[in-house]
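Section handout, structural biology tutorial.
Before the tutorial, make sure you can parse a SMILES string by hand: atoms, branches in parentheses, ring closures as digits. In the record below the ligand is zinc ion, and the chain has 125 residues. In the tutorial you will relate the predicted structure tokens back to the input. Do not try to memorize them.
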Amino acid sequence: MSTPSKIEKLERRRSRLIGELLKTQAMIRGSFGTVHRKCGASNCWCAQAGGHPVDRINYSEQGRSRTKAVKSEDVSWAREMTENYKRFRKNRQALRSLEKQINQAIDDLEAKVVDKTARQRDYVT
Ligand SMILES: [Zn+2]
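Predicted structure of the complex:
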């Protein structure tokens, strides 16, 4: 594939990725998870079994890992919002990698065009 068509192809992918990013209407920073905690009451079922499920969002703030409890009626919402965030971050990562490739391809293009032009006159290098 020629360098210009390679750049155009990458640019179309870049444009689709930005479209995906712009579609995101709501998200929560962090990931959803469920842990099981014993409540401490010796007569509770959980003293023998795994513990009570606690739904929460895990996130990091200033390099520290933190959690927020999620109300049971909000579990599916919180899952969806953290999935949106995950997808958004994944798309941003893909965008960064694509932009790097576009930049490299433009470097190639520059070198090729400069070389080709230099061959037109013997005093141009
Ligand atoms: Zn318990």
